[in-house]
Amino acid sequence: MRFIHASMCHVNRWNYKVIIRLIFVYPWDVITILTEKVSGELEMLQRHLVVLKQVVENEPIGILKLAEETKIPSHKVRYSLRVLEQEGLIKASAPGAVTTDNTRPFLRELDAMIEDLAKRAEDLKNIKIGSSIEN
């Protein structure tokens, strides 16, 4: 069985390029397709938290220093900073990014949020779809 999977790739801030790829679907590929987006989101969340950690520990800190310290490309650091600023967790200042009054309350709740995500991931293991399908 085969189908077309379309995904959008951000090329620059004015133009988006659509990438079309053919995927031959085998049972393990379906799981890959279903989990690909979640995996990408978790990776991005991890990056945002690494950047936030550096801001908390080294504020004020600029983009180049963040990229150097985290080994994350500067364009991804910029994106993470923008997301964190939109969420009210950091703000821009002349010498670099600094925390806000919202940062500490967020950090207090962070472990509980991560535990909730871990529990949800663990609950996925309890769904035994393959054992209920007859050959």
Question: What would a concise description of this structure say?
Answer:
The protein has 135 residues and is of the alpha+beta class.
Structural class: alpha+beta
The H-and-E topology, N to C, reads as EEHHHEEHH
Q: Look at the structure and give the mean pLDDT.
A: 79
Please give the number of β-strands.
Answer: 4
Tell me the strand order in the biggest sheet: 1-2
Identify the CATH architecture of the domain at 38-127: Orthogonal Bundle
Q: Can you tell me the overall shape? A: elongated
Q: Any idea what the CATH superfamily of the domain at 38-127 is called?
A: Winged helix-like DNA-binding domain superfamily/Winged helix DNA-binding domain
Task: Report on this structure.
The structure is a single chain. The chain is α+β, with helices and mostly antiparallel strands and 135 residues long. It has a domain at 38-127: Winged helix-like DNA-binding domain superfamily/Winged helix DNA-binding domain (Arc Repressor Mutant, subunit A). The chain contains 5 helices and 4 strands. The strands form 2 sheets. The chain has a two-stranded antiparallel ribbon with strand order 1-2. Strands 3-4 form a two-stranded antiparallel sheet. Helix 1 packs across helix 3 and helix 2 packs across helix 3 (74-86). The longest helix is centred in the N-terminal third of the chain and has 32 residues, at 27-58. It is elongated.
